Amino acid sequence: MKKILALASILALALAGGIAYVICNGSVAGARTAERETKRAARHVNEKPATRNAHAVASRTRRIPAPKLEAQEFTPVEQADVDFIEDLMAEEKFEEVRRQARRLGGSTNAAVRARVVAALGWFGEKAIVDLAPYLADEDADVRDDALVQWNSAVGELEDEQEKANIVRLAMLALSDREMLDDVAFNLYDIEEETAVPVIKDIIANENASEAAIAAAKEAYEFVTGDEWDAQDEASPSNADADEGE
Questions:
Q1: Torsion angles phi and psi, residue 50, rounded to 5
Q2: What is the largest CA-CA distance in the chain?
């Protein structure tokens, strides 16, 4: 009888300890989740609603593979390629995914390019450069997917100067105003002293499209709180000014 009582006591203690462990770990996990959400909210507090929604969708879905497209959308060869790049993505083989993305990125099938974007987006900031060309894809759905993935990846960057420079390069390569506005939103949560020189460079850059210049001026007004002064257009480009000037 004593042995039974002793065994019951041990089991009760073990059960109590297990419950305490779960509660403790649950509390820690909950605190960490709350901290992440607070930081995310603080980082995007000044963004326009559409951008906040895009970042929220991206943060929830980037690590979840998109459902495979229906087989009839692909030829047998394309299906094999799509399956292969998805397998590489699942195995976290980024360099091999990049190689396959370069090969498949020129596909005439938008569904294949969409799968390339999804595979690259899985790797976040590592794939920013690889995702950038798809921001100008001829297919609207591919462009939209690429924008969500690219914004999510850029949002992972902690170095504000690096983020600003990447946004600058993207804006100089684009001419679609709606896309440019979405890309420029990444400048809104960067410190003014970092964002403004990049914005001014875009405005003064001879390679910038009219839409890029307009989007940059709007970004300037948001970041500084001041209207863009036309006299600043005479300022030399920070990135492209000739040496010695």
A1: -60, -40
A2: 95
Q: What percent of the chain has pLDDT over 90?
A: 61
| Two structure tokens written together for 15 | 């059960």
Q: What are phi and psi of 213, to 5 degrees?
A: -65, -45
Q: Kindly tell me the number of DSSP H helices and DSSP E strands found in the chain.
A: 11, 0
Residue 231 near residue 195 (C-beta atoms within 8 A)? no
- Give residue for tokens 């000014």: 241
Cα angle vertex 194, ends 38, 143, to 5°? 70
Residue 49 has pLDDT above 60, yes or no: no
Average pLDDT, the chain: 76
Helix axes 94-104, 76-90, angle to 10 degrees: 160
Distance, CA of 216 to CA of 201 (rounded, Å): 9
Tell me the C-alpha distance between 181 and 204, whole Å. Answer: 18
Encoding tokens for residue 77? Answer: 């060869």
- The 10s digit of each residue's pLDDT in 176-229 is 999 999 999 999 989 999 999 999 999 999 999 999 999 999 999 999 999 898
Handedness of CA 161, 163, 164, 166 (dihedral sign): positive
Q: Yes or no: say if 167 and 154 are a contact pair by the CB < 8 Å rule.
A: yes
Question: Using CB atoms within 10 A of its CB, is residue 80 exposed (0-12), middle (13-18) or buried (19+)?
Answer: exposed
Q: Which two tokens stand for residue 135?
A: 């921001």
Task: Specify burial of residue 1 (Cβ count, 10 A radius: 0-12, 13-18, 19+).
Answer: exposed
Q: What is the DSSP string of 101-145?
A: HHHHTT-S-HHHHHHHHHHHHTTGGGGHHHHGGGGG-SSHHHHHH
Q: Which residue type is seen at 70?
A: E
